[in-house]
Amino acid sequence: MMDPDLLQRWRNAPRLNDFSAFFERTAAGQGGAPDLGEPRLDLGLLDFDLESAVFADTHKRLWGPFDFHYFASIPYRLEEECRMGPALVRTALETWARHARPASIYTLGTGTGCLARTVALLGAGRIEALCCSPTAANREAFLANRASDHAHFHLGPFFELDADRYATDPDLRRFAGGFDILFEDTTFQMYDRDRVRQIEFVYPRIRAGGLLIQVQKLAHLDADEYQARERQKDDLFKSRYFSPVLISDKKEEVLGTMTNMQVDKDATVGALKSFFRYSVATWNSGNFYTIISSNSRVAIIDFLSLLLKPAIPPAFSYADLPAVWIDTVTDPIAPALAWRRPNTMDGLAADQRLAS
């Protein structure tokens, strides 16, 4: 039984109240869109990798209005999505082959569900993908370009999806056995600061040997350093896509409140350590991080072996990656971690793909 006080706190959270109009307007294409240009993938940062190019091409065809805003807002988040995507698909297909069942992926709080729709389409029936958002316009974008019958959308916040809901909702029953990969994307920080209770809620939904992947914006012990990274994001990246007025408007409407619910690395590690034996940071862009956690050493090693090196200019990254944040003394993971080599397209194909 969920703590009713906690449930009420999440219902009263900014994401469902103060931020609601902003997300609805942006997801409906009625505001918040970049007004100076659309975000474009820099395939060169991905070493013209064939698998990343295929994923990116599929992914871009499925964008909804909110995706244009999102990928123009976080430096090189689009390259990170197209670096992560092939590893998600390959891991899921290996799960399908090993267990003779469709793999299950849950992208929690991922707007239009573009990532879920992309992996479901590329999985061709071998991957069942679920996403959730409390924004009705995101659901409309999802249904307008669903792409696969194996992609599913829940209209509502993440905390509505408890065990009873999976067991009784016909649309969700296929996920009652849990998820092989649960991907949380900058969502927890819009509800409150208690990462332990948030992870505690989703942890039972992760299958044994599964992965929790998170994109988190972290606070910093040095407030000046945090602000310096924010200025870099705004002045050197977002300014390519948004006019100064739009950047200022978002700060005023959303980012100030959201900052109050961010936690730092120590708090993040402390929360994850309550549930996982291993946790590795695999990407960093300013104050943003990708963090992969599991109780299976092999699962993390195998997943990282499918990831290219981070696709981001060095000036935007402040961490030596991969960075092991949680490890064991008896069976350490750090010595076994390595990125995959790119499957680089030939020069002509790469030039043509980049030009497109």
Automatic annotation (TrEMBL):
Gene3D superfamilies: Vaccinia Virus protein VP39 (3.40.50.150)
InterPro entries hit by this protein: SAM-dependent_MTases_sf
Keywords: Methyltransferase, Transferase
Record-level Gene Ontology MF annotations: methyltransferase activity
KW Cell division (keyword) present: no
Any one of the GO BP annotations: methylation
The keyword Zinc-finger appears for this protein: no
Taxonomic superkingdom: Bacteria
Protein name in UniProt: Class I SAM-dependent methyltransferase
